[in-house]
């Protein structure tokens, strides 16, 4: 019984000390763990745009094979807007 209490007490003390260090540390948490982003936000945004373009091109390739009309970004935006308006009109509880 004494060993279990001692173990739990030591664990609580370690957690308490770590929480105190985190509370009183003046730098950011990223500095605390020496974390630096690999890529800049601009590069991430450009990667996202490239991904969307590539997915759209791949979808259009599949649509051409089926004989369906191609879609563009504006068409997708219109579709999404229509679906959003329909969801809002219905009062869909899962869309919030």
Describe the structure.
This protein folds into 2 domains: 1-33; 37-91. The chain is mainly α and 96 residues long. The model has no long low-confidence stretch (mean pLDDT 88). It has 4 helices and no strands. The longest helix has 26 residues, at 41-66. The chain has helices at 2-24, 29-32, 41-66, 73-90. Helices cover 74% and strands 0% of the residues. It is elongated and about 75 Å long.
**Element order, helices and strands?**
HHHH
Share in helix? over 70%
- Let me know the largest β-sheet: none
Shape summary = elongated
Q: Tell me the structural class.
A: mainly alpha
Number of helical regions:
4
The whole-angstrom Rg is: 26 Å
Rounded to the nearest angstrom, the distance between the terminal CA atoms is 51 Å
Give the overall pLDDT as a whole number.
88
Strand content: under 5%
Low-pLDDT stretches are: none
Number of strands: 0
In total, the number of domains comes to 2
